[in-house]
Structure formats: C-alpha cells, structure tokens
Design brief:
The chain has 160 residues and is mostly helical. The chain is built from five helices and no strands.
C-alpha cells in the first residue's frame, strides 16, 4: 500500500473533510470587524438550523446503514463492492456527503458565523470534488453505475 501522502486512495479528501468538519463545529465563528448576520437571516437560526442538522445527520446515518460492507472513507471502492441504489441512495448518489453538507448548513444557521459559512462552502466544494473522483472509479468497477448516474442526481435530489 502506498503511503498516505501519495493520495492513491484519496486520503487528502478524507483529511480535508475532517479538518473542515472540525473547523465548522469547533473553529472560530467570525473575524473581528465583520458585521453580524443581516437581521432577516437571524430568525433562521435555532429552529430551522437545528432541523437541518438533524435531517442531515439522519440522511448520512441512513446512507451508512444502506452501504453496509461497501462503506469506506476513501474514493476507491472496496474490491468486492456492489451497487447500492435503494434507501438513501435512491434520493442521491452520495447521500453521506449530502447529509454532511445539510448538517453543516444547519449548524452555520444556528451559530450565524461568517467563517463557519465559509468553512461550510469549502466542505461542500471538497465533497463535490471527492464525489467526482469517486464516480470515475465507480463507473469502471460497478456494472450499472452509468445507468444509475442517468437516473439519480449526485448531491441534490432532482437538481444536481
């Protein structure tokens, strides 16, 4: 096995997503001199944000259960991987990533921090890039994956 710094299995994606998730939850919320969130966004804080956090975590958790032994944090699928298209995978092709993004958006609404919003945008971009690299490998390894891609959107049901 190649050392992790060679990124042969997408190790840097995993490190990046954990660093960004840590910054979202534990990092600084804003910078000195930044204005507070606009008043019209402040009501989106606690209740809607908390609902999004819960929804995102439930979606990601359901997807983990749906994947079973196929689960891996890396972009390279397991050697004996099978195509999963039911449950959360009937909504989007990468429901774990979607759930993490939804939860991060919800947390951002709860804490209303500009830096938290920036970290959330970076996490979304990283997970989108990770999903694209993962899909190149899944197209080669899993029969039927191309058809699945035509039927089910990547991260946002019916849109993207």
């Amino acid at each position: 096995m190649a050392p992790f710094w060679k990124n042969s299995r997408g190790e840097w994606f995993v490190i990046g997503q954990f660093v960004l998730a840590g910054l979202i939850v534990f990092g600084p919320r804003t910078l000195a001199g930044f204005p507070p969130w606009p008043p019209f966004l402040q009501p989106l804080g606690m209740l809607p944000g908390s609902l999004l956090v819960g929804t995102g975590l439930l979606l990601a958790g359901a997807a983990v259960l749906n994947l079973g032994r196929n689960l891996t944090p890396f972009v390279c699928p397991r050697a004996q991987a099978t195509l999963v298209t039911s449950g959360a995978y009937g909504l989007v092709r990468h429901p774990i990533y979607s759930g993490l993004i939804i939860a991060a958006v919800g947390f951002t609404l709860v804490v209303q921090g500009w830096l938290t919003a920036g970290f959330t945008l970076l996490l979304g971009a990283l997970l989108d890039c990770k999903s694209r690299r993962e899909e190149r490998l899944l197209l080669v390894q899993l029969p039927g994956y191309a058809d699945y891609c035509r039927r089910v959107k990547r991260l946002i049901p019916y849109l993207y």
